[in-house]
Amino acid sequence: PSDITPTGDLEDQIVIREPTPNHLIQGGKVIVSGLAKPSEESMLAELVSSDGTVVGFQQVFLTPTPDGSYVPFAFEIPYQVDKGTWVRLEISENGIRIPGIEHLSSVEVYLSP
Questions:
Q1: Which residue of 24, 26, 68, 74 pairs with 33 in a disulfide if CB–CB is 3.0 to 4.6 A?
Q2: Does residue 64 contact residue 102 with C-beta atoms inside 8 Å?
């Protein structure tokens, strides 16, 4: 049998509390809230359709705590769709030492115009 040794802290770095999965959202903006343990000062939130089109985005600025604890966040993402569309809300943080996404959390929601 394989031995698996977990590395470091296994808690989610980004926790999305709102919106909940499979939630219907109307009115042209998505209200997002949750908790993050940011290692940098900015994160990117995007609404991505199944074909890869970004229908809304917002840059989020958070100040990391000295002890590395969770920081609450809340913001709105404006969006524009012509018809009902399933999208994935993705909140990501890029790494500085190693280029690319360091942390990512997502939830699927249904947007209506």
A1: 74
A2: no
Q: Find the mean pLDDT for residues 23-29.
A: 95
CA distance 77 to 72: 17
Integer Cα distance of 97 and 2 in angstroms:
30
State how far the Cα of 37 lies from the Cα of 63, in Å rounded to an integer. 9
- CA 67, distance to chain mean position in Å, is 22
In 1-113, DSSP assigns E strands to 14-18, 24-25, 29-36, 42-49, 54-61, 71-78, 85-94, 101-111
CB 22 within 8 A of CB 108: yes
Per-residue pLDDT tens for 43-66? 899 999 999 999 999 999 988 888
Length of the chain: 113
Which one, of 90, 80, 88, lies nearest residue 60 by Cα?
A: 90
Q: Cα(15)–Cα(86) distance, rounded to whole angstroms?
A: 20
Residue type, 71: V
